[in-house]
Write a structure and sequence with these properties.
Largest sheet: 5 strands, parallel
CATH architecture: 3-Layer(aba) Sandwich
Order of helices and strands: HHHEHEHHEHHHEHHHEHHH
CATH class: Alpha Beta
CATH topology: Rossmann fold
Radius of gyration: 31 Å
Strand order of the largest sheet: 2-3-1-4-5
Bound molecules: adenosine monophosphate, magnesium ion
Helix content: 40-55%
Structural class: alpha/beta
Number of strands: 5
Oligomer: single chain
Distance between the termini: 76 Å
Amino acid sequence: MADERVERIAEFIKPLRVKPGSKVNLGKDFDPGYKADYLKKKDGVELLKTGTAMLADYQARLAAQDTHGVLVCLQALDAGGKDGTIRHVMSGVNPQGVRVSGFKVPSAEELDHDYLWRYARRLPARGEIGIFNRSHYEEVLVVRVHPENLDRQKLPKEAKGRGVWDRRYREINDWERYLSDNGFTVVKLFLNLSKEEQRIRFLKRIDRPEKNWKFSGADARERRRWDDYQKAFSEMLSATSTDWAPWYVIPADRKWFARISAGAVLAHTLIELDPKYPTVSPDTRGSCAPPSASSRPRRPRVPLPTRMLPPMPQPRKAPATRAATRTGAACRVQRTRPPR
Ligand code: AMP
Ligand code: MG
């Protein structure tokens, strides 16, 4: 790939990256309405098209190389645009190589296990791109904002109480480091929506019958906890943006800009991985070349049978009776003894 394009993508996503070790204050540090000055919405359509074609090519190579996998974690508040981002960014990619998993309120079976269990079960395989629509980060977001979720997790006394969130941040960082050390790159995208834009999107969901299904009473209740979520997101971004799995804060008030930004981060990840189509080794290639006359193996001689089978007798032309047809007798052929 031309270096200029690679550099442009790297430059484009730089302001979105949360510097590992920095302390984030979401409200102050990241503007949900940000867009690169040089970009207009109509450029965005073209860019997204180029980006999706590029992703399709890289994904095919990732699958063929079959050594690395990519896990994309998408987090956002309600109406942040997670579903639309997945639909648009992954539109050109072969569905066989992508696995999307959504995470909702945990089931009884999930609550019976450690909190990372259900996420570990949905990890991508080598050669795949896995997308988490909500992810293990819910365990330090909704569970933190609504501590009754922690009570439901049936934790022993020593695993909850003081220090539980710092411990979870450490465990999540360790888990992601383990994944990245073993060939699985973790890409983390937080779609950062403003409170005003969320209000506008909620109203659309209420007003338009075809969008009603997207809105629930729970969404309105969660909106009342806006400040608590902003605080939980800020702490999460500060504690879990690491060198091996950094967070990207995607400005989400303009859907088109959010989509090209998410696509650019994913493209950047794949460019860095640089998967390649495996080539056929000279040995394997040689095994398919036509053999020379001298090296051609001799076909083993099979002795001819001493008693040849008789030729297949033809069925008689006589019209089949109804009874014979019913039993299949009309098709039966009389065996003849082979000549001596
Ligand atoms: P949605 O993505 O709009 O279908 O909603 C899924 C809901 O599941 C959201 O309200 C999440 O906050 C909630 N959820 C996801 N993970 C968890 C979790 N670990 N504990 C409790 N609630 C969760
Ligand atoms: Mg929802």
